[in-house]
Every structure is written in structure tokens, then in C-alpha cells.
Amino acid sequence: MTRPDADALAAAVRAALGRVVDPEIRRPITELDMVGAVSVVEGAASIDLSLTIVGCPAADTIERDVRAAAAAVPGVTSVDVAVGVMSREQRDALTARLKGTRTSQFGPDSLTRVILVTSGKGGVGKSTLTANLGVALASTGLSVGIVDADVFGFSIPGLLGVGGARPTKVGELILPPVAHGVKAISIGMFVDPGTPVSWRGPMLHRTMQQFLSDVFFGDLDVLLIDLPPGTGDVAISLGQLLPQAEVLVVTTPQAAAAEVAERSALVARQTGQSVLGVVENMAGLVQPDGSVLQLFGEGGGAAVAERLGVPVLASIPLSIPLREGGDAGAPVVLTSPADPAAAALLALADRLRVRSVPLAGRPLGVTPL
Ligand SMILES: Nc1ncnc2c1ncn2[C@@H]1O[C@H](COP(=O)(O)OP(=O)(O)OP(=O)(O)O)[C@@H](O)[C@H]1O
After folding, report:
1. Domain MIP18 family-like spans what residues (predicted)?
2. What residue numbers does the annotated binding site for ATP cover?
3. CATH label of the domain that carries residue 343
4. Which atom, in ligand 1's list, is nearest to the CA of 316?
5. Which of 86, 118, 161, 208 lies in disulfide reach of 264, CB 3.0 to 4.6 Å?
């Protein structure tokens, strides 16, 4: 084989490696400087691969994908991959590049739509709805992240079926685990199971700051934030950190839940956030005989919406598959999309795909890669 052919083959292998994506960072490995020397001698390809960290959990997947991509290039008969690890300097350069010059991924120059999911009372289904909404939006091809800001009562990892997941750290950057197409981060991924989190305001504020700046979400279309119930420290911190965010208010049809839900929306407005609308959860359950069981009464969602001057965006009925899906970490929007609660959530996701705040006039947040 002549040299130009070997060079052309090596170039073809490199181009094929451009289609291998790091499953955690979600960028082609060639853009992440993970591919070193590539050569092809008489059909035998040799590839130097640098992983970001020792013991990279995605190592096996990346190496397998590299082998498959190279082997698929016509003319390549065998593939040898030498796996190494980036030097500290290389890793620092990469994390600096990924982080870019933006102080926050979700600052005013970001194109990501940030939606806070809030409620007055606990237990109204806010986390269950956030998880399902995230998965529903991701299933339509959007790039979606979820921040579990319910630090004391985190439940997002379990709802998404990644209860035991631990984020990978690359230098200063934290890579969020991906579940059902959604990048999710939660304090539950950092503490030992069973350990209660009992922090005061400043610690909560710092954690929220870190979630928004040190967790590498990449370019998201939508970031959903599951707030703790009520109007405590976290809601106030996020009001300061994300004044451009929009707020979804979750309530049950019950009058008592509705009144406190309204208060959480008013606090959001005080920080400059806009209230998108109300989602009523645990609405009437249709019985086998056709009658409707209104376990939590009626009208709470409409009452809050009217007082806030916003629409009721969805009414999600009580649903056993929704609850079971949450317990199993298998969101109902994926497992039983025809279930009435799943259908209502999918319709809500469709409504949220359309921005209420136009992008015109806003600067483009250019990805520094
Ligand atoms: N539409 C529904 N039908 C049946 N069960 C539901 C529905 N929505 C939520 N649930 C169940 O209600 C319980 C509370 O839901 P969830 O944890 O999502 O509430 P929450 O508002 O996030 O609570 P907290 O903020 O206190 O953590 C869960 O067991 C969940 O499975």
C-alpha cells in the first residue's frame, strides 16, 4: 500500500471517530481531544485514545464504539486501541473549554428555557410531574436537564430510575447522569443513602450555585428545576440566581393546597420571574362505571390561575400507573403513554415546547467548542 492511501485511510478513520460520542459529556470524542495519533498500516489501524480520568465509567463504551467505528471504515482489517489518560494540563484545558467564559450556563445570555416547578404544599406531585415532563420533552428530541432543588426531600433520582447513580467528575466539572434522555443532578447523588441533609440557607445557596455553574449540562433547550415546596431559602436563592426563569405552579384541586400554591407564585414574581401557568394534579379519577372520583375536590387549579391571572396549562388526573411508574423509576409517559395522566403530561410538554418569551433581540450564547 502506498503512503497516500495510508494517509487517506487514517483520515477516514479519524473522520469515523468524529461520530463517536462521549456518553457522559455528549460531544464527539474528537472535539474533546480524546483522540491522539491515528495510523493505518496495511489495513491495521492503530488509535491512541485518551480518557478524561482514570477509571472513567464510560471507558468500555467509548473503546467499544471506537473499535466499531474504525472497523467499519472500508480498507481497515484490524483495530488496535491504546487507551491512556489525559494529563492534568490536558484535562484542565478541556474543562476550561467546556465551561467557556460564561459565569453561569443559564445566565441572561443563555438560550436555555429555565422552568421552575413550584408548589405551596408538599406531596402534591411536583417531583413526579417534573420527572415526567422532562422525559416527555426529551422524547421529542429536545435537550433537557433537571435540577433537583428539593435538597431535603430529593426524589428525582428515584423517579428517573437512577437512584444509585453518582456523577463523574472531570477536574472541576461534574457530569450529570443521563436517565431516559434527561441529564439530571440531585444532592441525592452526592450523599450516602439514608444520610439526612440538614443545611442552613448559605449552604443551600452555594449548592444551587454549584449545580448551575459546575454541572456540565451542555447546550440545553430546557432546564426544569424541581423546587422544594413552599417559599423557603432555595426558592429565594433561585429567584436571585435565575431572575429570567419561568415558573409552573403545581396544586391539587383542594382549596387549602391552592391558597399556599398562590403564595409560592407571588414570591417568584417578587424576584422578577414570570409565572407561566398552573398545573392541577390529582384531579378526578374516572371509575370503571364511568363516574369520577374527586378525591381532592374540584376547582383548586382554576382558582389559583384566576387569582394569578395565568392559564391552567393542564389537569392531570389521579393515576395508578403514574404512581407505580414513579415508584419503579420508569416514567409513565414512556411506559403507558395512553394512560390519561400520561396523555395530559405529554400534552403539557407539547404546550411548553412553544416559548412564551420570544428570543428576538437576545444575544446568541455561542458554545465555546
Ligand atoms: N396524579 C397522580 N396520581 C396518583 N399518584 C400521584 C399523582 N401525582 C403524584 N402522585 C403520588 O403522590 C406522591 C407525592 O408525589 P411527589 O413526591 O411527586 O410530590 P411532591 O409535590 O414533589 O412532594 P414533595 O415536594 O413534598 O417532595 C407520590 O407517591 C406520587 O407517586
Report:
1. 11-81
2. 120-127
3. 3.40.50.300
4. 1
5. 118
Inter-CA distances, 361 with 109, 111, 243, 341, Å: 11, 12, 18, 37
> Whole-structure pTM over 0.90, yes or no?
no
Question: Ligand 1 pocket, 316 CB below 6 A?
Answer: yes
Give me the interface pTM, i.e. the ipTM.
0.97
pLDDT in tens, 190-228: 877 766 666 666 677 888 888 888 888 888 899 999 998
The CATH code of the domain that includes 7 is 3.30.300.130
At residue 55, the 3 state secondary structure works out as coil
pLDDT digits (tens, 9 = 90+) for 106-164: 877 778 899 999 988 788 999 999 999 999 999 998 999 999 988 777 899 999 999 88
125 CB less than 6 Å from ligand 1?
yes
Task: Choose the residue to mutate in 117, 118, 128 for probing ligand 1, maximizing ligand atoms within 8 Å of C-beta.
Answer: 128
Neighbouring-strand partners of residue 248: 117, 277
Q: Which atom of ligand 1 is nearest to the CA of 129?
A: 18
